[in-house]
């Protein structure tokens, strides 16, 4: 077969099969849809990242010094973290469909996606959109998977079964404390020789305290670790 | 009377092809030989198979001509389509004809351009065959970048767009290909 013969065959085939170039608008539409997909994935992962951040920032970080891994696992908002992972991965896959994605290394694409997500999440946090979403989803998603309890939550909810108690110190005796939480429950907190008071804090009546230990009765709690929360911590806001 | 587009730029040719598919013949004339050798070099295909591949390539070019982005060189775009079509054809073909498609000049050019430093030693046919075998024994990804760089004389930017890999990856493929070739040549006592 010669080149001229092939040329004729190609043109003949184009005419016979009525092959037409893909319309320009179709190519443009595809590009727009791909970029819109990337943007959509970034916005959603930013939203979930901002939800993770408000949850984590509300936790008094020093409680991690008590039982770092155990508490960290308890405080991680798995639903939001999982959704961030899914949408970042989706964003990465869609980005790879853009015309010039191949020019960039995988790590670079991931890093850029993450930085843009972080930036957007700060903006969403600033606009308080994350708080609206959290309030909206609070009763729809199990708390254990989404909104992790902050110190305020320890005080507002009875979490004694889970080994956490928070509230105001009402009375202080040698071997027990009386603590009142925001539910107006007065808890008797038993102190044992093993009870550790973090940084040897001198507890005073009226202090806000966080106690880790075991529930031993209806309104009775045995303390393992006691931590005084300072008023100027973010967790009190 | 048919317009003479032999001296037209690729961009003008694209516009003319959109007006009349007959003008595709100018594009075919311009790129046929270059692409024919490129396909032969990166595959084991016979001339007939190569022509079939090129036929498919030019039909794809016509079909997707509106997707051509003028920020690329047209030659880069057409090489990209040719490469992808050839790779698809290689995948489809279960039995490949064992026919080497490098000529002695090609081999000499690879050796000179890659700076491996053994071109003066390729004096007899037997040694040429060994060099050819070494190049053919390299994984396709290394062969491909060596052919694009040393035979098709593409720049790194063009190679990035043709094989759709980041610049760093292209550079490391080229270096590794060169090093592998050198190692094999040393084993065969050519260096």
Write the layout of secondary structure elements.
The complex is a heterodimer of chains A (237) and B (191).
Chain A: H1 3-16, H2 24-57, H3 68-75, H4 78-95, H5 106-126, H6 129-137, H7 151-156, E1 164-172, E2 176-180, E3 186-190, E4 196-197, E5 208-217, E6 220-229
Parallel strand pairs in A: 3-6, 4-6
Antiparallel strand pairs in A: 1-2, 1-5, 2-3, 5-6
Chain B: H1 10-19, H2 24-42, H3 47-63, H4 74-92, H5 104-114, H6 125-137, H7 140-151, H8 156-163, H9 167-187
Helix pairs in contact in B: 2-3, 2-4, 3-4, 4-8, 5-7, 7-9
Describe this structure in words.
The complex is a heterodimer of chains A (237) and B (191). Residues 232-237 of chain A have low confidence and may be disordered. Chain A is an alpha/beta fold. In chain A, strand 1 (164-172) and strand 2 (176-180) form a beta hairpin. Chain A has helices at 3-16, 24-57, 68-75, 78-95, 106-126, 129-137, 151-156, and strands spanning 164-172, 176-180, 186-190, 196-197, 208-217, 220-229. Chain B has helices spanning 10-19, 24-42, 47-63, 74-92, 104-114, 125-137, 140-151, 156-163, 167-187. In chain B, helix 4 (74-92) crosses helix 8. The chains are: A alpha/beta (237), B mainly alpha (191). The interface between A and B is medium-sized, with 23 and 28 residues.
